[in-house]
Amino acid sequence: MFKILLAEDDKSIQKNLSCLLAKEGFSVIGASGQKEALEKLESEQFDLALLDLALADGSGYAVCSAIKKRLPDLPVIFLTASDDEISVVTGLDMGADDYITKPFRPMELVSRIKSVLRRSGKTQSVFEIRDIKIDTVKGKVYKNETELFLSALEYRLLLAFINNRGVILTREKLLNEIWDLAGEYVNDNTLTVYIKRLREKLGDDAKNPEIIKTVRGLGYRMDA
């Protein structure tokens, strides 16, 4: 689980972002100002820092400067209420990996975070959804700590859903996922069969699925 330092002095924003990121599988440690953020960096290890530019007792710039001096490999994303060129350039020149302007769409922020983590060479290897755990390094799937045995195509489908949680995947997109692995054309009926089998192995109720949900007329979605 990736651990994020969130430096944001607006308590409501900090709370909402913490809840959002927790639902996405991140561990979030909040800091209300510059001093607290620097103290957290001294006492804990993080995978990414999410910094508001304007903090009550200082600025995100100061925190970023301290990070790049002591922890140069720790990626930084700035949250800014201003999209003026000077603020953006200043942040990037200090070594920030990205920035996002308020107000922003929640899933856009999540996407930016995941993108920065990938570019920084940080990839999540274990995912959990309800009572299902997927270890992508070992290529194993567990339900309540009992290993499930999936076919290669079923496993590939599961990874497609895990990597796109909260996103509707069309049947065409999923067919492409299967085709890439199988090396041959797979028709629409085959996809239906594999989704049915995957749901059964995951213990997902076919009539009222809670893990892989059907979005009528659009495709399927695994909730974040």
Describe the structure.
With 224 residues, this protein is an alpha/beta fold. It has two domains: 3-119, Response regulator (Rossmann fold); 126-221, Orthogonal Bundle (Arc Repressor Mutant, subunit A), CATH 1.10.10. 42% of the residues lie in helices and 22% in strands. It contains eight helices and 13 strands. The chain has helices at residues 11-23, 34-43, 60-70, 85-93, 106-119, 152-162, 171-182, 188-202, and strands at 3-7, 27-31, 48-52, 54-55, 58-59, 76-80, 98-101, 126-129, 132-135, 140-143, 146-148, 213-215, 219-221. The strands form four sheets. A five-stranded parallel sheet has the order 2-1-3-6-7, sandwiched between helices. Strands 8-9-10-11 form a four-stranded antiparallel sheet, with no helix packed on it. Strands 4-5 form a two-stranded antiparallel sheet. A hairpin with a 2-residue loop joins strand 4 (54-55) and strand 5. Helix 2 runs parallel beside helix 3 and helix 6 (152-162) crosses helix 8.
Indicate the radius of gyration in whole angstroms: 20 Å
Class of secondary structure makeup: alpha/beta
Element-by-element helix/strand order: EHEHEEEHEHEHEEEEHHHEE
Tally of individual domains: 2
CATH class of the largest domain: Alpha Beta
Residues in helix, %: 40-55%
Main sheet: strands, sense, barrel: 5 strands, parallel
Could you name the CATH homologous superfamily of the largest domain?
Response regulator
Approximate strand percentage: 15-25%
What is the count of β-strands?
A: 13
**Taking strands numbered 1, 2, ... along the chain, how are they ordered across the largest sheet?**
2-1-3-6-7
Shape descriptor reads elongated
CATH architecture of the largest domain: 3-Layer(aba) Sandwich
- Whole-number average pLDDT? 86
Which regions are unreliable across 5 or more consecutive residues at pLDDT < 50?
none
Number of helices: 8
Cα-to-Cα separation, first versus last residue: 14 Å
